[in-house]
Design goal:
Blueprint lengths: L78 H31 L60 E2 L12 H5 L5 H13 L4 E8 L5 E8 L3 H12 L15 E3 L13 E7 L6 E10 L2 E10 L4 H15 L1
Antiparallel strand pairs: 1-2, 2-3, 3-7, 4-5, 5-6, 6-7
Amino acid sequence: MTERTSSVEDAAATPVENGTTAPVGAQAALPPAPEAPAAIAGPEAPAAVGGPEAVPAVVDPEVPSTAVGAEVPPARVRKDRRVLRAVLRWTAATVVFAAVGTSVAYGITRMDRTDVPGLATESDGRWDYPTITRPPLPSGSPRPLAESNKTGTHYADLRRLVLPAPKGAHVDTALRGTDGWLATKTFLAEYATRDDRETVGQQLTDNGLRHIAARGWTTPDGTHTRIYLLQFDSVVVADEVNSPGLTSYNMPNYAVRGAERTMADDRFPDRAAVDDVVRHAYDEIKPYGAEQVRQAYLSAGDTLALIVQSRKGAARAVPFQQTVVLQSQLLG
């Protein structure tokens, strides 16, 4: 499964060296010209926050440097007047630099972040999930995928292992169930045909389904997400229900509503795999119906998960992958 991860590369500025030029034909030694004030460095772009996938790098555009050379004073001028004119000249230059720097700083504070070169960070489509932590285990109980846990049992409350909705999403109250446990018939309603619902229901009964925890939500862009966690007596049983029961390598064994033609999602990143969590991800084949549907089955210990996302027009890949990876990590 994928873990949510991002990286930004900083552009290196190339220093510009200024040479000095000695006056030609000067009969007396001239005082060295005062050094030009140092260029004011602009703010560095902040590092991107990491996620399941790296944020595309944003590189600052190259900004040309402009060096202002000192004028050569005429020969045979009284020393005190030369010094006075040099002081006045550099005092004026300092005032100009200060004025320009102040106006630039004011301009940046008045601009949106995306208007400042190097600070624009275009979203890659990931959702803003709240801080996610695994629920505590009963004292002395092993993790579900620990080597000592031969049955792969999730000792934590399964209802607390369902991924929470991202910020701004509208929660689907129909999937709350009774005391957090969902009726089997509500889960079976995800499948497209009556025959498939009956067949899958019989498989769950024959394999001793213990209970189902679920959660659903709709984000502002119209994406509808449903997550179901089905718990059995052991990892052996859950694996059997997963495959060959509900999944195969190329396509799911039973179509969900709105996705009768579905194939394996070859674009799901392999690097997003979570250790010891078996993932089968599928994508609907064009032409889509009213919505595009994405789905994934996860098998982790004694628990089988089904994640379904659908959206009118097209269901985006990034939030689907992000959701699958986060749910995999919670179960792992």
